[in-house]
Amino acid sequence: MYKYDQYDQAMVDARVAEFRDQVRRRVEGRITEDQFKPLRLQNGLYLQLHAYMLRVAVPYGTLSSAQMHALADIADKYDRGYGHFTTRQNIQYNWIKLEDTPDILADLAKVEMHAIQTSGNCIRNISSDHYAGATADELIDPRPYAELLRQWSSFHPEFLALPRKFKICVIASEADRAAMKLHDIGIRIVKNDSGEIGAAFYVGGGMGRTPMIAPCINPFVPLDQLVTYCEACLRVYNRYGRRDNKYKARIKILVHELGAAEYTRQVEEEFAHLLTQDIEPPLAELERISTYFASPAFETGLSDDIDRSDPDFALWVDTNTVPHKAPGYVSAVISLKPAGGIPGDASAEQMHLIADLTKQYSFDECRVTHTQNIVLPHVKKADLHALWTSLEAAGLGAANLDRIGDIIACPGLDYCSLANARSIPVAQKISERLSPRSAELGELKVKISGCINACGHHHAGHIGVLGVDKKGVENYQLLLGGSEADDTSLGKITGPGFDEAGIVDAVEKATEVYLAQRTDGERFLDTYRRIGINPFKEALYG
Amino acid sequence: MKIVTGNDLKTGAVTWWTGSDWSIHVDDAVDAGDQAETIAAREEAARNVNSPYVIEAVTDADGKVRPAHIKDRIRALGPTVRPDLTLKPADPTAGNWVI
Amino acid sequence: MADLLRFRDDEPVDHPAVTVDAYLEQSNAAAVRIEPGDDARALIPHLDGLRLVEVNFPAFTDGRGYSAARILREAGYTGEMRAVGDVLIDQLSAMRRCGFDAFEPDKPLDPEEAKAALATWPQVYQTAADGRAPIWKLRHG
């Protein structure tokens, strides 16, 4: 894992001091809420439905046990004993007091964490593959590149008042586990025909009100020009992104309106200029960062055998572990989606336990996934039963990775001031109703958003649900056929919306159409793509 | 009727204008009538409240104040999915009030 | 000029700035004012006679002026770069990094607060227009 040096620590400490002063001036009335709002947002602090909410950055989703313990301590000391893991691989707390915030940030800084740029119209936390460094299918660990960009984007003086928020994702495999093409900039680390490593840039993707899949604007940017190329992409956006309408201010609209070719031409022109400006850290800096991401010392000669005599354990192993690059190891996924639970929520006790298990079984490293679960990336197969036993006892043993119960849901109208409808109760009811049929239904990704901003990734769900406000009453639209994986696609709305009970019935009906129509080995998404939306419409509205 | 709501500047707690002060209980809210916007502006300037706004509400059959929109009813109660964290933790069915 | 915060030793220009369009038509003025929608690059062929560039921030949340300032500094402009308009304490450090060396805010700034704000960052992560060595350079010499 990356470790701060004196410079990184000094920057984070300076940020805490800066925000402490800003909070003081706000409380004393020396700055208005309008002036303070962008400042607090760029420190992760929202004013939500019930209280202030603090979003803490988990850079590229990676945490140590000490950091996870610290997150649990914050939940206990400053909040109401729990936290919520988000679709940006971050964690947020729902009951924060403004006056406590500087102290919380100071506590975070002690474990090399922060809440910098987790909100606001700036470059946000950089996300990555939650199996980075563990999976056999990656070209290289993408996280050093993400860390390089984290430092470049932190407090970037030119890009703190962008037209709108800006999200960057870095992956390094053909498989996409991070919804890379649904980011403002998606970067895939690639190898060219000469065997050199570089970065393919996908720019202008996103969900929200106008979902778009990012086009590739440059298939190979040399590694020693990565930061400069990002700077060029951002400068063109900062200068020409729309500022007349916040709903059209994301870079996807600029790329769409200019056309990818013209946007690319402008970026290349800016890039050629910026190459003369000494923007780029030397490759030695990338090498310095990379040393922190060296593979742990995996044991060799381990057995691949697992005692499968306990069927519940065997089911969990089959569902919630994925292959690892080292023999005798797997990556194990801790589900934060117990049947009927609140997706992504974890109590302080659960976080402490996950921290302990992280230290005991996974080389002191865990990951937050964009699907609101936790990964222990490097677990010996021989340790799986002990791990599972501990998880089961804490309500963390649900065997439902990528199954019907593994629902993404935004906080919705239970917590969020932007929401139009509640998301969590819908997730709970779908999970309760259909989890018993989890094995039969196989891979089925359900994603629920409580408003059009799409924090619950509804466009990218095999089954998506979008909550809307219909004359003051919650109403839910059903979408089918989305995917955030390598085969990225955007879901289609089936037709008129439903009330809360109706949307749960509608999801069940969609699964029945699938079960009736599928051929051998087809997932829900495959069947949908083969037969189209009409059979589903007939079942829903016929 | 028109009632005024916002959040406490320091704690973030949801508050309601009572005619002389701010309360965390929506039942304490009073009809601010055509003074609502004026009260909101004055109280915000004095930092007694953060980001106040004026909403429609009615008095229900039990004489209780009921905000017109579901969003403000959820603000008045707390998250419906965590009854233990609402203002009525002893009543697990309190969430039905918001619908 | 009472509320002008200036980090230069030369004499300020004593006549009003003209618009970019006016300057490009008749470039004997020494002061130009850039609005958020203006293309700062249009000035690059005409930098020689310029002694003052005002960059207007009608709203502090519109960050186009940061790019405008950097672009002109990158093009070699060494005259005064003045941020005017909705210029607030908490944006000063970023503005300074982007090449501003004078500030003329709509509402006066507390000089002590301004001084503290400009000293916010012990080091910096990026190359910008203020000549500060980024952290990566300190790490690798």
Q: Top keywords for this entry?
A:
heterotrimer, A: 542 residues, alpha+beta, Sulfite Reductase Hemoprotein, domain 2, Sulfite Reductase Hemoprotein, domain 1, Alpha-Beta Plaits, 4 domains, five-stranded antiparallel β-sheet, 20 strands, 36% helix, globular, C: 141 residues, alpha/beta, Rossmann fold
Question: What's the arrangement of secondary structure elements?
Answer:
The complex is a heterotrimer of chains A (542), B (99) and C (141).
Chain A: H1 6-27, H2 33-41, E1 45-47, E2 52-56, E3 62-63, H3 65-78, E4 82-85, E5 91-96, H4 101-110, E6 127-128, H5 143-153, E7 168-171, E8 185-191, E9 197-203, E10 216-222, H6 226-240, H7 251-258, H8 260-274, H9 283-291, H10 311-320, E11 321-323, E12 329-334, E13 345-347, H11 348-361, E14 366-368, E15 374-380, H12 384-393, E16 408-409, H13 424-434, H14 438-441, E17 446-449, E18 463-470, E19 473-480, E20 492-493, H15 500-517, H16 524-531, H17 534-541
Parallel strand pairs in A: 6-7, 7-8, 16-17, 17-18
Antiparallel strand pairs in A: 1-2, 2-5, 3-14, 4-5, 4-13, 8-9, 9-10, 11-12, 12-15, 14-15, 18-19, 19-20
Helix pairs in contact in A: 1-2, 1-4, 3-11, 5-9, 6-8, 7-8, 13-15, 15-16, 15-17
Chain B: E1 2-7, E2 14-17, E3 22-23, H1 36-45, E4 50-59, E5 65-67, H2 70-77
Antiparallel strand pairs in B: 1-2, 1-4, 2-3, 4-5
Chain C: E1 5-6, E2 18-19, H1 20-25, E3 31-34, E4 52-57, H2 64-74, E5 80-85, H3 92-97, E6 102-105, H4 111-118, H5 135-140
Parallel strand pairs in C: 2-3, 3-4, 4-5, 5-6
Antiparallel strand pairs in C: 1-6
What does this protein structure show overall?
The complex is a heterotrimer of chains A (542), B (99) and C (141). Chain A has 542 residues and is of the alpha+beta class. Chain A has 4 domains: 105 residues, Sulfite Reductase Hemoprotein, domain 2 (Alpha-Beta Complex), CATH 3.90.480; 149 residues, Sulfite Reductase Hemoprotein, domain 1; 83 residues, Alpha-Beta Plaits, CATH 3.30.70.3340; 134 residues, 2-Layer Sandwich (Sulfite Reductase Hemoprotein, domain 1). Chain A has 17 helices and 20 strands. In chain A, the strands form 4 sheets. A 5-stranded antiparallel beta sheet of chain A has the order 1-2-5-4-13. Chain A has a 5-stranded antiparallel beta sheet with strand order 3-14-15-12-11. In chain A, β8 and β9 form a beta hairpin. Chain A is globular and about 60 Å long. The termini of chain A are far apart. The model of chain A has no long low-confidence stretch (mean pLDDT 97). Chain B has 99 residues and is α+β, with helices and mostly antiparallel strands. Chain B has one domain. Chain B has 2 helices and 5 strands, in the order βββαββα. A 5-stranded antiparallel beta sheet of chain B has the order 3-2-1-4-5. The model of chain B has no long low-confidence stretch (mean pLDDT 96). The termini of chain C are far apart. Chain C is globular, with a radius of gyration of 15 Å. Chain C is 26% helix and 17% strand. The longest helix of chain C is centred in the middle third of the chain and has 11 residues. Chain C is α/β, with parallel strands linked by helices. Chain C has one domain: Rossmann fold, CATH 3.40.50. Chain C contains 5 helices and 6 strands, in the order ββαββαβαβαα. Chains in contact: A-B, A-C.
